[in-house]
């Protein structure tokens, strides 16, 4: 497929002809609303587990990077030559166990009191106008869902969080669909 540069007008024409883009949301939207980046998630997870394994409260503000980072580097599975983001899957797999610990961590980190920024409100309006029928996200938070539920023009949003729900994905959805590519981290 050849790449063609499109103007805003030509894209609008494509949308008006019934073409529906698929939107891929990454961390940028959530970071602006106050959700941690992947790098920051890794650091918080490492500090969290360091505290648990060393008998400290996970809320102990005295724990510093100089405490937990040497411990993290000593883990056989941790690859210091990779970025935190690249180590993220292993950190979740190795540190946030058992599942109840992972749920506790993410429930605390994905603060439900965070208010979606203006970008999420604009996105909800676009979803309500059916500009986007399919939204793929690598994010974990519920900011899209919450914003859509507060937007009158969004009558329904199909949320697909787990691999066992992937059969519900449609190429011609009746309602907008939000598909979590990483699944539900709290499950």
Summarize the structure.
With 187 residues, this protein is of the alpha/beta class. The protein has 2 domains: 8-35 and 114-180, no CATH class; 38-109, no CATH class. It contains 8 helices and 4 strands; from the N terminus they run αβααααααβαββ.
Question: What fraction of the residues are assigned to beta strands by DSSP?
Answer: 5-15%
Please work out how many helical segments DSSP would assign: 8
Rough shape?
elongated
Largest sheet: 4 strands, parallel
Total number of strands:
4
> Helix content range of the residues, please?
40-55%
Number of domains: 2
Looking across the biggest beta sheet, what order are the strands in? 1-2-4-3
Write down the secondary-structure element order: HEHHHHHHEHEE
Mean pLDDT: 86
Q: How does the helix and strand content classify structurally? A: alpha/beta
**Whole-Å distance between the termini?**
39 Å
The stretches of 5 or more residues where confidence is low (pLDDT under 50) are none
Computed over alpha carbons, the radius of gyration is 20 Å
């Amino acid at each position: 497929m050849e790449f063609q540069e499109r103007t805003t007008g030509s894209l609008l024409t494509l949308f008006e002809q019934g073409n529906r883009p698929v939107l891929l949301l990454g961390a940028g939207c959530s970071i602006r609303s106050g959700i941690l980046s992947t790098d920051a998630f890794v650091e918080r997870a490492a500090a969290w587990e360091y505290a648990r394994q060393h008998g400290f409260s996970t809320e102990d503000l005295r724990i510093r990077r100089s405490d937990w980072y040497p411990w993290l580097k000593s883990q056989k599975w941790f690859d210091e030559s990779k970025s935190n983001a690249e180590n993220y899957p292993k950190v979740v797999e190795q540190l946030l166990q058992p599942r109840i610990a992972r749920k506790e961590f993410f429930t605390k980190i994905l603060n439900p009191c965070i208010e979606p920024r203006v970008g999420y409100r604009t996105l909800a309006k676009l979803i309500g106008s059916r500009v986007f029928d399919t939204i793929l996200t690598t994010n974990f938070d519920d900011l899209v869902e919450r914003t859509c539920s507060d937007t009158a023009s969004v009558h329904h949003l199909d949320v697909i969080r787990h691999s066992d729900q992937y059969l519900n994905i449609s190429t011609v959805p009746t309602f907008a669909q939000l598909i979590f590519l990483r699944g539900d981290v709290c499950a």
